[in-house]
Write the structure tokens for this entry.
Amino acid sequence: MSEKKRKTDKAHLVVDGKTVELAVLESSMGERALELGRLKAETGCFAFDPAMANTAVCRSSITYVNGEKGILLLRGYPIEDLAERCSFVEVAYLLIHGGLPTMEQSMRFSRLLNIHSMLHEDMRSFFGNYPEGAHPMAVLSAMVVSLSSFYPELRLENTQEETDITATRLLSKLRTIAAFSYKKSVGEPYVYPSHKYSYCENFLNMMFSSPVSMYKADAYDVALMNKLLVLHADHEQNASTTVVRMVESTGANLYACISAGICALWGNLHGGANQAVIEMLEKIHRDGLTADQVIHKAKDKNSRFRLMGFGHRIYKSYDPRAKLAKKMCMAVLKKKKIQDPLVEIAMRLEERALNDPYFQDRSLYPNVDFYTGLIYRAMGFPKEMFTVLFALGRLPGWIAHWQEMRKDPEQRIMRPRQIYTGPQKTAYIPIEERR
Ligand code: SDX
């Protein structure tokens, strides 16, 4: 039997003839990391790791992602189980509190969500000052940081009760802000939250109800909304979560941290990809391009075109969320009897890409954003709202990481270093002598 690879708990680095011993740390899933906290002091060298692709910046017990095997666990629970069996509110509770709620805890959490669902009336007027066509992500980020002007910041020695109130206040108000920003964008009157609805039912009602149509969110859409928000609830140290953690490390308040996370999520390489996928598919449809033509463009290094919704820094296999989203997409189109040409285009692109050596060699698969936009579209959301929906789902994850960061004794203000490539010390020349 081949000797099981013995895991060492020490590594040795030789710099300028000096041997430095590094501790080898191990995660609860067996992954290992070299502890480099004393690297500069011991060797005089920095570690160079652009985009932090090889760097663990913290210890975290919230989410586990295995990119090779396509595994995603939230507090140990497989995403497939949570999406199938839990409401978004339960998963939000799980992420923030570390365990699934009892019936009593769930009812209390839901009660807090209802209590905090209204926006301060003075904030309502903010929406009116945005120009027609203002992107809802801009509104979302600005309104969230403005909450700090209306609601108290958490004291450092805050109680769990105060954290719960602040967390549910944000979870509930972000939903209201999202719906209000949509209503503003379509020039319709705001629909207020109601205590008689559940979290997702409230959101759909605030989005699609209007004085002239007695909209009633049907159970299918409410269940689908729950699943979609659960799919997005957390994903360990992604870019926007790292931003939330970095802003928290400076001592800024929760609203500022989340507002910064929303801005980071907006980028089309991150959460903005779900809108970019639809825009890509619409253009392919409009231009009448074949899948072969599109795949050719995606492989062409001279073109800036990328197959949006494909590829991932961690997943080198099919994103488990994309698998679930694809199934949900097929089901919603069948249920609502929708023939969407963009879906056929997406499926042809996926089939071609997965059989193309360029994509295979680079382990490029559909990610969470490839099919989710098609589901939102079938539910009647405009594409400008898609990344807002991603943020709504990701909020409990951001709050859980913010909370973990605040309590982590190993953490302090994040302050990376650099490899300086600028000029050596330069003498000043008065302007009249410059040539
Ligand atoms: C999310 O981190 C997270 O967990 C994020 C997220 C979360 O839940 O928080 O999962 C959500 O952001 C999902 C990703 C959404 N973004 C997109 O769909 C945008 C399209 N994808 C790519 O831009 C890209 O795949 C990234 C940004 C997702 C990942 O980029 P990496 O890890 O930096 O990969 P890379 O750019 O170094 O690419 C490696 C190679 C390159 O080719 P070579 O230089 O080796 O020849 O793969 C190529 C890239 O050109 N490549 C693509 C491609 N993605 C990578 N080629 C064509 N189309 C693509 N989509």
Remarks:
- The pocket of s-citryldethia Coenzyme A is lined by residues 235, 238, 269-271, 273, 298, 306-314, 362, 364, 367-369 (CB under 6 Å).
- The beta strands are 10-15, 18-26, 32-34, 63-66, 71-74, 77-78.
